[in-house]
Amino acid sequence: MGTRRILLLISILFIAAQTANAGPSNRHAENRDRNQPNVPVNLVGFGAPLPGVAHDSRDLGLFATGQINFKEIDTLPAVGPIMNGVSCAGCHSQPAIGGGGLFINEVRVRNNTHPGPLHIFAVDNFLRNGPQTQGTTVIFPQGVEAEPLGCQITTSGCQLSACQTEEALRTTFTPDLPTCDTASPSFKSGGNCVAGRSALPLFGDGLVEAVSDQTFEQIAQSEPSQIQGTVKMVTENFASVAHVGRFGWKDDHATLRGFSGDAYLNEMGITNPDNKAEVSECALNETLPYGLQYETPLDQEFEDPTGADGHADIDRFSDFMRALAPPPTLPRNALAKNGAKLFADLGCAGCHTPSLTTDSNPSSFIPATTGGVAISHSLNESLANQTFHPYSDFLLHDMGSLGDGITSGAAGPTMMRTAPLWGVRAKSQFLHDGRAGDLAAAITFHDGQGKPAAQAFGALSAHAQQDLVSFLNTL
Q: Are 76 and 149 in contact (CB under 8 A)?
């Protein structure tokens, strides 16, 4: 082949390559992008510390220590006697430590006058087999933790233990209770029901905690009346002043310390400086199988004492969560950019507020540890005056039939906190009880104040709907 023919062939191949990689105006490129599998391909960076924390050895040390405690598995006799799990990371793990849940981690019962969730597991049927050996060495001296962890109260046919029987009576739970449907005649007539709750991701929550009450109040005032959010004021157990709730499906907590203390007690059954009373004493002085005496009066006032460094475990959990960086964003191609425009045009941004800015001095309202240790000056600087992009106003909205049916203080049965959308590409189930298997279904299920946006989404072409989903997968 002559030199001129080789050069001509190279030129043709170059032009073809350029055409194949043409910009957004090339319809073939758009169709190629649309035909790509709709799966997240990049979860790098989830679970990392804030940049400022990563460059400060003391703050990074607190983050690392908190992460270790967050992953730690609590064992008998501290855990229980009724609980949902044995580790914070057991519920917050997707796609990294501090993330959301892979399944429904909690159940709430309507008309439950006892605070906190239904407890699935009870320690007095938590173990099986008794002590085991490896050669002459004793392993599992208290017996093996059953898989799943004991007989689950939510499973039909479970032979309820004494603790679980008490739990069922207190909460009115039975395995045949239906999922709460606030639009149903049964619900309106007062019938009991249950609502599943998936664990929420914690990435970026330190920035959320660092937003002032006034900012959330101003956001509520600025929203159109049709979709105006409700500010829920909460007073934590350790505080004398109420602050704007922003954590949990019903905005039950204003601070990460409050969130940690409540979860340690209600999800794991561990008393702590902010929650000193046991949820139940159903196993007090009871001898369990294989001679283990589970629950005895403690020498100290509660099971999670504050150490000499001014930190209890709930403070270390807070240190870890507070320093978690937001989910990293992905570049947007032309289709995702079109999806971003549709997101705004359809009114989704009315509740899913794209940007928030933290206070200039978060340490003025972020609580100290249980031992009185304030956040460091360097962490305060890392959190201050930061504009971030959670795509949530963190306020309560009336979601109509999409509500969970549970009343929690000022949050009525149809009211839910606006779920942040950052990092949504890492989730495998959507909405509070995982009823939506993909983002398009999650949007379609919106009701109440979210119904107009859902209807507008439904009116889009299939290609336009996919563009909007592509945009969400970059957040």
A: no
Whole-number Å distance between alpha carbons of 89 and 72? 8
**Cβ neighbours of residue 162 closer than 8 Å, sequence gap 6 or more:** 122, 124, 282, 283, 286
Distance CA 348, CA 392 (A): 10
**What are the phi and psi torsion angles at 325 (to 5°)?**
-75, 155
SS3 content of the chain, % helix, strand, coil (to 5): 35, 10, 55
d(CA 306, CA 261): 12
List the domain boundaries for the chain.
29-472
In this prediction, residue 200 carries a pLDDT of 96
For residue 354 the two structure tokens come to 């794209």
Across the chain, mean pLDDT equals 89
198: left (phi over 0), alpha (psi -120 to 50) or beta: beta
Cα 104 from Cα 203, distance rounded (Å): 19
Dist. CA 378–CA 363, nearest whole Å: 11
In what helix (H) or strand (E) does residue 104 lie, and over which residues does it extend? Answer: strand 104-109
pLDDT tens digits, residue range 417-453?
999 999 999 998 999 999 999 999 999 999 999 999 9
Q: Is the peptide bond before 77 cis (omega within 30 degrees of 0)?
A: yes
Q: Structure pTM?
A: 0.90
> Which two three-digit tokens encode residue 179?
């999922």
Distances (CA, A) of 327 to 2, 202, 346, 468: 55, 10, 24, 19
For residues 84-107, average pLDDT: 93
Q: Shortest CA distance to 110 belongs to which of 166, 176, 171?
A: 171
DSSP, residue by residue, 369-422: PTT-PPPPHHHHHHHTT-EE--S----EEE-GGGS-S--BTTB-TTEEEPPP-T
Contact 131, 125 (CB under 8 A): no
Task: Tell me which of 426 and 25 has the higher pLDDT.
Answer: 426
Which of 190, 172, 192, 193 lies closest to 114 in space, CA to CA? 172
What Å distances lie between residue 382 and 9, 263, 366, CA to CA?
56, 26, 14
The answer, yes or no, to whether residue 363 has pLDDT greater than 70, is yes
Highest mean pLDDT among 3-12, 108-117, 126-135: 126-135
Interval 190-225: pLDDT, tens: 999 999 999 999 999 999 999 999 999 999 999 999
Cα(452)–Cα(459) distance, integer angstroms: 11
